Amino acid sequence: MIFKCSNPNHDLDTEFVCMNETCQESRIFCFKCLQNEKHKSHVKEIHKIENFQNLLCNQIDNLTNELEQKINLISTLFIKFKSAFQVKSQINIKQLNGLNITEISQFIQDQIRIQNESKAMFQLLYRSTENVVQTLKMYINELFYSDHPIKKVKKESITGYRIIHSFEEDQINAIEFINQSNLMIVGYESRKINIYQFNQGQIKQLQKLKIHKKSVYSLITMKRTNEFFSGSCDKTIILWEQFDDNQWNPKQVLTGHLGGISCLVLNKYEDLLLSGSDDFTIKSWKKDKEFWICSQTLTGHHHYVCSISLNENENHFISCSKDKQIFIFSFDDQKQLWKQCQTILTRDGGRRLCFINNSEFVFQPERKKKLQIFSKNDYDSNFIKNKEISIYTGTSINSNKSCFWFFPQQYIKSQSILVNKSSCSINLIRLNENDDYEIIQHIDFQTNRVIGRMTENGEFLVTWDDKTKNLQIRQQRDC
Question: Based on the number of CB atoms within 10 Å of its own CB, is 260 exposed (0-12), middle (13-18) or buried (19 or more)?
């Protein structure tokens, strides 16, 4: 691996490699470059090119050997621990014969205490080892599953979206459609909610609602009853209903969260609501006759809950957060409760995810040009990452700014289209007959604050961004 130095004034072969992670200079350079002290601050991380491969191999070997020694030590200690615990927990009946009732009672009480302490200790050990297992699985997937760049569809087969209407609007945080997309519900930073008639891309304001005390963060609509929920920074969820005069009024206020309501998901029977919050929790709400009650609070995330998604059978849901964890929950029919059945550790926090079907979901790491695909494996029914596909993140002056978290992922099953935002770009991706993900269009808004929603039939895409400050309506077109 010998090349001419990239500095045209040196006219020497490269001799050295820089291994410093933050170095901004050329990684491969000649002796004159070294003399110019461009790598002076990290000279210990400069190596000869011929030693480069051996150096990398030795570093990996040392790390794996150290880890292997730790694992062997844990195995040895566990065998000793198991043996000692079995001896300690054995009961000698002959010893009990010499005790009176009070002493036997105290002995039983001590054994119950030991059992409870042991359970807590075992659970702690299990959680620790489970984290190790999940970390190993994550890096195995990283190493064995190579990137699968997204396939570009030939131009003649692309279905794209073009702007048909655009007008200035205040900051929007959420958009939803109701009544077969004839109505559009819009939630604003200013805490108001506007109801629009939506007719083939033409909109007309019908009503303005202003009950929330702070910004509206999330919306979810019903199909069976023409009702909808709104979640707010004021920590409440409001259920709205439409009366005979076609006016919307609050029907119930759901309280209990200690932070803003970042995401809402409703099942197809419209008797289960899941809410994610800034308070790091997820609440499950059940419909009891005409009103809703909180049936369960799920904890475990260590940061804001950014996104939730139900699978097709609605017996599992997933959640993600900036804490670099994806949780998978399953529903226990006997106990009628959700239980966490898997934790997936990720390298990066994520803003959005959604199920494609019962056995596959997609996850968007923050500010990454890759969309991750997770599939259920046949061995233990756990989800593992099986590939990554390239997506667009767009361009922005503030490239280091975190991705604005509103705008949930949306999968339009009838069109097999995934609507995915990453940083400054919306990626419209189709799942084709071969189960390959194909990019059909990407829209660069040059700002990370983009909100949007597609109609259920996939014909219209409505967005708002803080660069144009316009509500833009795009319609599907064939190129």
Answer: buried
Same domain, 80 and 131: no
Residue 477's DSSP bridge partners are: 160
Residues 258 and 367 in one domain: yes
Positive/negative CA dihedral, 359, 362, 365, 371: positive
The DSSP result for 129-169, as a single string, is: HHHHHHHHHHHHHHHHS---PPEEPPGGG-EEEEEEEEEE-
Q: In what order do the strands lie in the sheet with 325-332?
A: 305-310, 316-321, 325-332, 337-345
Full residue range of the structural domain in which residue 61 is found: 1-89
Q: Tokens for 454?
A: 């597609």
Judgement on whether residues 241 and 366 belong to the same structural domain of the protein: yes
pLDDT in tens, 150-197: 444 443 344 689 999 999 999 999 999 997 889 999 999 999 999 999
pTM (two decimals):
0.70
Give me the CATH number covering residue 456. 2.130.10.10
pLDDT band at 90 (very low <50, low <70, confident <90, very high): low
Confidence (pLDDT) at 156: 39
Same domain, 17 and 55: yes
